[in-house]
């Protein structure tokens, strides 16, 4: 889905207004009015059946932006109560995703379906190709029995009129681990025992019914306190906004952060450590090690594919090393990671050195709310420069290429890239683990999102654009790679 659409605009508007409410003289009162400020009396109905439903959805978006699960909401509860609770909260809620049931369309069940294009042809290839006896002819047209259909879709490929289609539920279709489904009233719900927090459902839902629980209020509280607050920006931040990374970093300083670190520094540590680990672990032909900076991949292995665990690199992520570096230098500082996806928000909750996480989308809203014009700022000078390989972690092949570049014996490294944790790639990973070898290579890079981190659920710009910008930025620092 396009990163710039009506859903992202609505999310941004709620976030911008919420940030401005926090910075106002009366946060509680102003937070309570946001849905009515966005959709005042007699305003045009744009997306829903009536203004009241539009306000209801906006209310739920604000609850998520305040950091709370919509599933636990009591409709009689005022937004002012949520705002007060957000002020009093000491730490964010555990799960990072929530579903706006009022926004959910309640899509028809996913199934293979015969459309009106069916001509009732004499050949009837759909009937003869179905191995399950699910297709019959009634009144001269093909009909599919959903009880017998196995969704193999062979009938779709043989129909000469393209009359058979698969009706999909976007969020369910995007989820490779079957963690999102309809509940008893036909509304989407997330099974957190299965969910790997990849955020694919956020991107896929055309109604914006799946949302992240924001930590923006917690971050603003930290900035308002007398504590030192340090931002750590992911490599994939490059190209997200029409400004250089140094200007984005300076924008964070203007917003109240005391210092800004590139997580690419931690990526350099990851690459170096994984190169050493690879050398120790891979001794024979066919052996392999998987590498990933993606928290979703770790959750996938823990929840769905424990057989892969022996083949996972034990090296920590770039965020882990960067946050550890910051906390070592400033033990009392509040650390905030600016990243591209829901998975990193989940990782932040499990890392004692990461206090809060904000998405690039939330970062952009912060700049808008504070009227910070990045293009007018001088570039921030990072205390420590990162290498080209570290800065390239945000795109597919970047991690494996960086590990290979960090290895003094790189001719033995044969990279393989899993560009997105879809069901096909999951089957490949499980097959390699079962066979205890990978014929395609020996260093398997796994990215949950196609394109890498630049394709995450919290990004601001098209991944093709950001990939190009990130590679250009990385090349500028190639002399630091040694």
3D structure, described in words:
The chain has 482 residues and is an alpha/beta fold. Helices cover 40% and strands 12% of the residues. The protein has three domains: 6-105 and 176-213, no CATH class; 111-167, 2-Layer Sandwich (Alpha-Beta Plaits); 218-480, no CATH class. The protein is built from 20 helices and 15 strands. The strands form six sheets. A four-stranded parallel sheet has the order 10-9-12-13, with helices on both faces. 48% of the residues are buried. The mean pLDDT is 94.
Main β sheet profile: 4 strands, parallel
How many beta strands in the DSSP annotation?
15
N-to-C span: 39 Å
- Broad shape: globular
Instruction: Report the radius of gyration as a whole number of Å.
Output: 24 Å
Instruction: Note the total helix count.
Output: 20
Strand content: 5-15%
Overall structural class, as computed from helix and strand content, comes to alpha/beta
Q: Note the quaternary state here.
A: single chain
Instruction: Give unreliable regions as ranges.
Output: none
Helix content class: 25-40%
User: Number of domains in the coordinates?
Assistant: 3
With strands numbered from the N-terminus, the spatial order across the biggest sheet is 10-9-12-13
């Amino acid at each position: 889905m396009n990163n710039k659409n009506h859903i992202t605009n609505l999310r941004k508007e709620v976030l911008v207004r919420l940030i401005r409410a926090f910075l106002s003289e009366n946060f509680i009162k102003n937070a309570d009015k946001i849905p009515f400020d966005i959709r005042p009396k007699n305003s045009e109905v744009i997306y829903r059946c009536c203004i009241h439903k539009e306000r209801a959805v906006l209310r739920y978006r604000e609850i998520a932006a305040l950091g709370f699960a919509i599933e636990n909401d009591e409709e009689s509860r005022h937004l002012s109560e949520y705002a007060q609770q957000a002020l009093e909260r000491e730490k964010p809620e555990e799960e990072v995703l929530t579903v706006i049931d009022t926004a959910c369309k309640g899509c028809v069940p996913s199934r293979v379906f015969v459309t009106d294009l069916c001509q009732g042809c004499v050949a009837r290839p759909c009937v003869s190709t179905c191995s399950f006896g699910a297709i019959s002819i009634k009144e001269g047209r093909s009909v599919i029995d959903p009880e017998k259909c196995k969704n193999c879709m062979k009938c779709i490929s043989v129909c000469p009129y393209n009359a058979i289609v698969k009706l999909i539920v976007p969020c369910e279709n995007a989820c490779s681990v079957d963690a999102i489904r309809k509940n008893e009233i036909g509304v989407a719900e997330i099974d957190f025992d299965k969910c790997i927090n990849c955020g694919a459902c956020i991107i896929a839902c055309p109604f914006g019914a799946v949302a992240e629980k924001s930590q923006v209020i917690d971050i603003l509280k930290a900035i308002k306190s007398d504590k030192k607050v340090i931002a750590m920006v992911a490599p994939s931040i490059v190209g997200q906004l029409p400004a250089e990374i140094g200007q984005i970093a300076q924008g964070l300083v203007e917003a109240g952060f005391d210092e800004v670190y590139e997580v690419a520094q931690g990526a350099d540590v990851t690459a170096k450590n994984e190169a050493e680990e690879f050398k120790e672990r891979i001794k024979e032909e066919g052996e392999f090690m998987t590498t990933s900076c993606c928290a979703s991949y770790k959750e996938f292995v823990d929840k769905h594919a424990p057989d892969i665990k022996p083949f996972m690199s034990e090296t920590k992520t770039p965020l882990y090393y960067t946050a550890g570096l910051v906390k070592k230098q400033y033990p009392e500082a509040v650390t905030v990671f600016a990243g591209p996806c829901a998975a990193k928000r989940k990782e932040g909750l499990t890392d004692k050195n990461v206090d809060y996480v904000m998405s690039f989308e939330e970062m952009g809203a912060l700049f808008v709310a504070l009227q910070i014009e990045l293009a007018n700022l001088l570039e921030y000078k990072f205390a420590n420069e990162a290498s080209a390989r570290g800065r390239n972690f945000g795109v597919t092949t970047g991690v494996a290429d960086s590990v290979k570049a960090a290895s003094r014996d790189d001719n033995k490294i044969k990279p393989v890239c899993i560009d997105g944790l879809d069901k096909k790639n999951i089957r490949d990973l499980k097959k390699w683990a079962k066979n205890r070898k990978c014929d395609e290579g020996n260093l398997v890079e796994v990215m949950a999102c196609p394109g890498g981190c630049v394709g995450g659920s919290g990004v601001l710009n098209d991944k093709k654009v950001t990939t190009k910008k990130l590679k250009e930025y990385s090349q500028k620092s190639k002399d630091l790679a040694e």
